[in-house]
């Protein structure tokens, strides 16, 4: 790892000008709950990205660090202070091909609230689960370009362990006195390669269609935990997984679909399962001031195919039979101001999750994001939200970008 980082820095420093970008920000939330969890949290965040391009060759180094105020000022730590390397990779573009080696982040999917097929990177388990916060994965990629599509062969070289915050943090899955074992139990070595074959492209004859198909052989993005005393151990298992995500634009309406089928190879604890997401987003006509409104509707379905295996609740699946109804308002102003909000209705366990988010930019370098959430958990099943309890939340984030 240290040698790879040193090579990137040395190469970009000696042979060309390094492009630098990043941000410093403050992220804060306040909650209605008191109990054993902190009712507020304040987190200082810093990110630095160095990139270099020379013809068809490019390299990237991106680092991120955060400090939770509770970790340095309170005897009940959140265990959310850390530094990590998000990305460090080399990439070379040929006329019809591309190769990449290193650690990077990928984004797959089309839906608004939850991307079922976005399985390449694990999420940072010590941060707010309502935001996308991926951890880079070590991999090799070869891509071949066709006229309107491309094929990729990707090998992820290492299955990463997860880390979670202490029980005092609002979104920790732990109760007071519990902990997560630092190991990841797996069927094979954690260095057993994950292989992904992807094919994606676009069609634009009569309608604007984007499509993508993914085959995976390796460790599933879904994991399960077992408990011994007060300690949890996380388990990873092997799958053949078939996924697709597609969009279709007809006039001012965008139709979206994501689908995944997982064939469990050897693990007898987890069932084969299917995961389906359907979405539609209709953009209303532009107003005189240039702003526009988008109406969003999405449905999520998760189903295990064997009843004698772990259920969706056991696997902490929060989108198993859910409907999202939302609204997006884009001002299309110089500050890129926008607001999005709606409600997620769990039609199976009778839960409601209401939220609204607003973000804007000023002086070209500062970004502000404000959000408010209300969660009404299930009273009949021990879901993820039921474990956290009824929640009122207000969040504020400000960051300086350079």
Give a summary of the structure in a few sentences:
The chain has 402 residues and is mainly β.
Helices and strands, with pairings:
Elements: H1 2-15, E1 19-31, E2 40-54, E3 57-68, H2 69-73, E4 82-93, E5 97-104, E6 122-123, E7 134-135, E8 137-145, E9 149-156, E10 179-186, E11 194-203, E12 208-219, E13 224-228, E14 231-236, E15 238-250, E16 253-264, E17 273-283, E18 292-304, E19 321-330, E20 338-346, E21 351-362, E22 366-376, H3 384-388, E23 391-401
Parallel strand pairs: 10-14
Antiparallel strand pairs: 1-2, 1-23, 2-3, 3-4, 4-5, 5-8, 6-7, 8-9, 9-11, 11-12, 12-15, 13-14, 15-16, 16-17, 17-18, 18-19, 19-20, 20-21, 21-22, 22-23
List keywords for this structure.
402 residues, mainly beta, Porin, 18-stranded antiparallel beta barrel, three-stranded mixed beta sheet, 3 helices
Share of β-strand residues: over 45%
Structural class: mainly beta
Helix content: under 10%
**Low-pLDDT segments:** none
CATH topology: Porin
Order of helices and strands: HEEEHEEEEEEEEEEEEEEEEEEEHE
CATH uppermost class: Mainly Beta
**What is the makeup of the main sheet?**
18 strands, antiparallel, barrel
Overall number of domains: 1
Question: Would you mind describing this structure in some detail?
Answer:
The chain is mostly beta strands and 402 residues long. The chain has a single domain, classed as Porin. The chain contains three helices and 23 strands. The protein has helices at residues 2-15, 69-73, 384-388; strands at 19-31, 40-54, 57-68, 82-93, 97-104, 122-123, 134-135, 137-145, 149-156, 179-186, 194-203, 208-219, 224-228, 231-236, 238-250, 253-264, 273-283, 292-304, 321-330, 338-346, 351-362, 366-376, 391-401. The protein has an 18-stranded antiparallel beta barrel. The protein has a three-stranded mixed beta sheet with strand order 10-14-13, with no helix packed on it. Strands 6-7 form a two-stranded antiparallel ribbon. The two termini are 27 Å apart. The mean pLDDT is 92.
């Amino acid at each position: 790892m240290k040698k790879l980082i040193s090579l990137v820095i040395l190469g970009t420093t000696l042979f060309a000008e390094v492009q630098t970008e990043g941000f410093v920000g403050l992220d804060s939330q306040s909650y209605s709950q008191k109990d054993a969890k902190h009712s507020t949290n304040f987190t200082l965040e810093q990110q630095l990205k160095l990139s270099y391009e020379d013809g068809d060759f490019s390299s990237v180094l991106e680092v991120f660090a955060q400090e939770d105020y509770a970790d340095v000022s309170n005897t009940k730590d959140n265990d959310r202070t850390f530094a990590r390397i998000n990305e460090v990779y080399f990439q070379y573009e040929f006329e019809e091909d591309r190769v990449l080696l290193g650690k990077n982040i990928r984004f797959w999917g089309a839906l608004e609230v939850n991307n079922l097929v976005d399985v390449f990177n694990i999420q940072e388990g010590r941060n707010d689960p309502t935001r996308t916060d991926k951890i880079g994965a070590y991999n090799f990629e070869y891509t071949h370009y066709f006229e309107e599509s491309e094929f990729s062969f990707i090998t992820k070289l290492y299955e990463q362990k997860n880390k979670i915050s202490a029980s005092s943090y609002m979104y920790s899955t732990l109760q007071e006195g519990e902990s997560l074992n630092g190991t990841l139990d797996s069927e094979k070595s954690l260095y057993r390669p994950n292989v992904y074959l992807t094919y994606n492209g676009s069609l634009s004859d009569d309608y604007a269609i984007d499509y993508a198909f993914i085959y995976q052989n390796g460790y599933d993005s879904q994991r399960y935990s077992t408990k011994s005393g007060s300690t949890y151990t996380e388990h990873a298992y092997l799958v053949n997984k078939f996924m697709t995500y597609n969009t279709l634009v007809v006039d001012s309406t965008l139709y979206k679909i994501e689908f995944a089928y997982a064939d469990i190879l050897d693990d007898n604890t987890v069932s084969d399962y299917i995961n389906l997401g359907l979405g539609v987003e209709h953009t209303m006509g532009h107003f005189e001031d240039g702003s526009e409104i988008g109406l969003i509707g999405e449905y999520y379905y998760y189903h295990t195919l064997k009843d004698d295996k772990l259920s969706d609740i056991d696997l902490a699946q929060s989108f198993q039979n859910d409907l999202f109804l939302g609204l997006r308002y884009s001002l299309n102003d110089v500050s890129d101001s926008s607001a999005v909000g709606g409600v997620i209705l769990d039609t199976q366990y009778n839960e409601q999750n209401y939220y609204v988010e607003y973000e804007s930019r000023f002086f070209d370098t500062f970004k502000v994001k404000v959000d408010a959430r209300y969660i009404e958990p299930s009273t009949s099943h021990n879901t993820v939200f039921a474990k956290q309890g009824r929640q009122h939340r207000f969040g504020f984030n400000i960051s300086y970008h350079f």
